[in-house]
Write a structure and sequence with these properties.
There is one protein chain. The protein is of the alpha/beta class. It has two domains: 2-81 and 113-232 and 480-497, Rossmann fold; 92-112 and 236-432, Rossmann fold (3-Layer(aba) Sandwich), CATH 3.40.50. Helix content is 45%, strand content 16%. It has 22 helices and 16 strands. It has helices at residues 15-21, 40-45, 51-62, 68-79, 114-117, 120-130, 146-155, 174-181, 197-208, 211-219, 232-251, 271-282, 298-305, 330-337, 342-355, 362-371, 379-393, 399-415, 434-441, 444-447, 452-463, 490-497, and strands at residues 2-5, 13-14, 30-32, 92-96, 99-103, 136-142, 161-168, 188-193, 222-226, 261-266, 286-293, 307-309, 357-359, 372-376, 422-426, 483-485. The protein has a six-stranded mixed beta sheet with strand order 4-5-15-10-11-14, with helices on both faces. Strands 9-6-7-8-16 form a five-stranded parallel beta sheet, with helices on both faces. Helix 17 crosses helix 19 (434-441).
Length: 500
Amino acid sequence: MNYESTRGQAPPVPSMEVIKAGLAPDGGLYVPERPVVLAPSALESLRGSAYQDLARTVLGMFLTDFSSSQLAACVEAAYAGDRFDTPVVVPVVPLEGGLHVMELWHGPTAAFKDMALQILPHLLTTSCRATSETAEIVILVATSGDTGKAALEGFRDVAGTRIVVFYPAGGVSQIQERQMVTQEGANVEVVGVRGNFDDAQAGVKAIFSDAALGAELARRGIRLSSANSINWGRLVPQVVYYLSSYLALRQAGQVAAGEAVNVVVPTGNFGNILAAYYAREMGVPVKTLVCAANANNVLTDFIRSGVYDRNRPFYQTISPSMDILVSSNLERLLYSLSGRDAAAVRGWMEQLSSCGRYQVDEGVRQRLQQLFWSDFASDEEARQEIRRTFACTGYLLDPHTAVGSVVYRKYLEASGDNRTPTLLAGTASPFKFARDVAEAVLPPETCQGRDEFQLMELLADRCGAPVPAGLQGLRDKPVRHGRTVEPAGMASLVRALLGL
């Protein structure tokens, strides 16, 4: 199966070329040229499968130019052994009522990004070997907090690759920043951008779109790629855990065969909830996709109105990985909902670039609202939800998952749909955001005068939950990366780092 660009001005290519390229040459995002569908009987036959077996099955349906042995090796390297701290990889934990948390944070960096970024380096290096790629692959990443560390960890010292991560300086949690700036590896660079995530993301996209730079890199034997979810190789592994979690509910008798579930996803760049959409398209019976936003609620407004408008204040929140106003992966959804109308998508993206706003047609808006429901949560609502959930259930939510829980409760109130079993994407360990979680659940006097690392230990002691291995000892690791740059200087810095 080949992949085509959402903007329709690039030739179709097989999945190995898609994974190497990341972004299509016309600036669009690659999508499968045809739907991938599991019959209900085939979905049922996967009940009880180990996560690794399910990953091989799902990825084999999308990445058809990989052999079964190639995929098996990639899956084994990513999900077997001790890379995840639980053999089931993604536990599904009942919370309250019909709500279940998909714990996506049991990988080495304690965030859901590990689910894809543990396998992407293996998919990429396999693609390079199979296609006799001789260029050095340079991975450029813009991160709002978690992608950066997960990508750095995944690509650390991977032969034939280098990785440069840009993050918003001052716009991530203290622990997220410490994870990145202490990163080891001979092939890694971490740079703080004096701006927000959208500035970093725009800078990376501009570098990819610089034809003259691309030609110069090609002459030097260098090829750019991405580990952001604009890369299909980053997005498609996320589809697996929605199938896995639905099948876990089936196996536990929580849902009957063919019974629909709701899925709630806290999201900013739209990749995680888009993976849920693709799982639905494959055949997972999903009733409603609930898109949970924080105060940067551009997606909520879009789903309600069909108007995407990034011309609004940008807020730094306690859920920093969602502090985004330009949701890149929405482009893939628009391509699908418009009936693969590349000209329409291209026009909307040009309007977004030129004036920061576009409005989809009525047919797309109606299809969008048939599938998605959205609301947002303030920081105070998220704090209260962390406090309430811990008091009622003993379960610790991180601020992003708390946003999802708040919005789910708003969905119940608005829809009255309290009978549908629901999966909530748990996107990070609460220990990654120790200050906000501790201040929500512990007495104020116990938190005063303590830094995030002390609060992380205090939380573990008071709540009886272990600090994930990947977060232990962070305070004592030496800082290895201290560069910062203005958004306008990102391209020049990349040129310098690559010796151009």
